Amino acid sequence: MTNLASLGHQISALRALKESGRITSIKAGVLEVSGLTHRACLGDVLGLETNDHRFEAEVIGLEENTLIALPERSPAGCAIGDSVEFRGGRRIAPDHSWLGRIIDPWGRPLDGRPLVSGPNPMSLDQSPPPAARRRGLGQRMATGLNVFDTVLPLVRGQRMGIFAGSGVGKSHLLGQMATGVDADVRVIALIGERGRELGAFVNDILGEEVLRHSVVIAATSDQSPLLRLGCLPAALCVSEFFRDQGKQVLLLADSVTRFAEAYREIAVAGGESPSLRGYPASMTPALMRLAERAGPGSGESGDITALMTVLVAGSDMEEPIADLVRGTLDGHIILERKIAERGRYPAVDVLKSVSRSLPSAASLIENHMISEMRATIGLYERAEPMIRAGLHSPGADPSLDRAIHLWPRLDGFISERNALGPEGAFRLLADILSGAR
Ligand SMILES: Nc1ncnc2c1ncn2[C@@H]1O[C@H](COP(=O)(O)OP(=O)(O)OP(=O)(O)O)[C@@H](O)[C@H]1O
C-alpha cells in the first residue's frame, strides 16, 4: 500500500513540461544560469547533465536576469550554454521503512539497497510547532549513564549541546546516548565526518540492534557543502515525521560546527559577507530556527529530544558557534580534555555543565544531593593543587577531608553505566554521599 501511495503521489507531482535555462558563467565552482529567474526561488533544485554525470545544483542567489547555483559536485564537464533543468523545491518523503537505513540528506540510500519513499513529501524547511500549543519539557529519561541520570538530567523534549575539542569523546558519548536513552526512534545526523568514521560509528558504536530503531542521515567531509548543510534539516524532517506519529524521538547531531561551516561556505559563494568571526549574519536565525524545530511536541504528537555536538577549538566557549548554541539550547555538557587524558570517560566536567531541566526534573531530596555532589567536587578541585603539593594536613578542615575521601567515588560514579534508571542512580549517589559506598 505504501509503495502504491508513494508511486501515486510521485506521478501526480510530475510536471508535464520540462522548464530549462542555460549556463552563462562558471566561476570558482559556482554557476550562473539565465532563463529561469521568473521561476526559481532560493533553495530550488536544478538538474545538470554532462557526458559522464547527472547531478543537481541548488539556487543560492538570485539577480534580475541570472540565478547563482552551487552544484553538488565539481562542475567539471559543464560548458557555457549547457541546458539546466528546473526541478523546484527540495523535498524528502520519510517512511517507516527508513528505520535501519543510512541515507543522504536528499533521501537517497547510502547503504546500497533500494529505498522506498513515503506518501507525503516534506520540504526541508518545516515550521516548529506553534509556541502557544507546545507542551513544556516532559518527564525524566533513563540514559544508561549515572551522570545524566542524576546531576545533568535529560528530559523529554530537552535540547542539549555537547561541547568539546577534537578527540575528547563527543562521538562516543553520542553513541552511548543512542544506545542508552529510552526512545522509540533515533535519528542520527552525521555531518562532515570523515568517510571511515561513518562506518565505524554505525558498526562499532551504534551496532545492529540500535540501528534497527534508527535512521542515520550522513554527509561526509568530502561531499558538497550543500549536502553537509542539508543533513541537519533532513534529520529534523525525519524526526518530525516520527514525532507526528506520536513517537518519542531522540535526535543526535554530530556536529553543529560542521553545519555552520557548510552554511558559511554556501553563503559566501552566494555573495553574503562574513561578519561573526567569518560567519555570515544570516546564520544565527537559521541555526536558531533549526534548534526550535526540536523540542516538545503539541497535541497527540511525541517529542524530539536532541543532543547536538559542538567542536570547541582550544576550549574557547566564546567562539561564535559555541556561544550561539549554548545560549539557544536547554543545557550544555562540557567534555574536558584534561579529564579524557586521565582516562575517565565520558569526560564530562560536571561543574561547567548545566541541565536547564533542573530543578523541576528532580525531587527536593534529589536536588539536595545534586548540590552536595557539586559542592564536594568543587571543594576538592579547588584544593587539588594544594593536595598534590603535599600542603594539606588531614584534620585541619573536616569538610575538605570529606571531599578528599568522597572524590574518587564520585569521579567513578560519573563514568559508570547503570541499568537502574534515575531512581537507582540516585540511590547509588545517596550511598556514596552518606559514606556507605
Ligand atoms: N567512552 C570511552 N571509552 C574509552 N575511550 C574513549 C571513550 N570515548 C572516547 N574515547 C577515546 O577518545 C577517542 C576520540 O573519541 P571520539 O571520536 O568520540 O572523539 P570526538 O570528540 O568525537 O572526536 P572528533 O572531534 O575527532 O570527531 C576515541 O578514539 C577513544 O580512544
Automatic annotation (TrEMBL):
What GO terms are given for molecular function? ATP binding; ATP hydrolysis activity; protein-exporting ATPase activity; proton-transporting ATP synthase activity, rotational mechanism
Q: Where in the cell is it found?
A: Cytoplasm
Q: Which domain of life is it from?
A: Bacteria
Q: Which residues form a coiled coil?
A: none
Which BP terms in the Gene Ontology apply to this protein?
protein secretion by the type III secretion system
- Top-level class of the enzyme under EC nomenclature: hydrolase
Q: Which reaction(s) does its UniProt entry say it catalyses?
A: ATP + H2O + cellular proteinSide 1 = ADP + phosphate + cellular proteinSide 2
Q: Does the entry feature the keyword Nucleotide-binding, yes or no?
A: yes
Query: Which PROSITE patterns has this protein been placed in?
Result: ATPASE_ALPHA_BETA (PS00152)
| This enzyme's EC code(s) | 3.6.3.14
Q: What cellular component terms from Gene Ontology apply here?
A: cytoplasm; type III protein secretion system complex
Gene3D superfamilies per the UniProt record, alphabetical: 3.40.50.12240
Any idea which UniProt keywords this protein has? ATP-binding, Cytoplasm, Hydrolase, Nucleotide-binding, Protein transport, Translocase, Transport
> Has the keyword Cell cycle been applied to this entry?
no
Per the record, which residues fall in region Disordered?
114-133
Question: In what residue span(s) does the AAA+ ATPase domain sit?
Answer: 156-340
Main localization is cytoplasm
PANTHER family of this UniProt entry? ATP SYNTHASE, SPI-1 TYPE 3 SECRETION SYSTEM ATPASE
What is the name listed in the Swiss-Prot or TrEMBL entry for this protein?
Answer: Flagellum-specific ATP synthase
- Identify the taxonomic lineage of the organism of origin: Bacteria, Pseudomonadati, Pseudomonadota, Alphaproteobacteria, Rhodobacterales
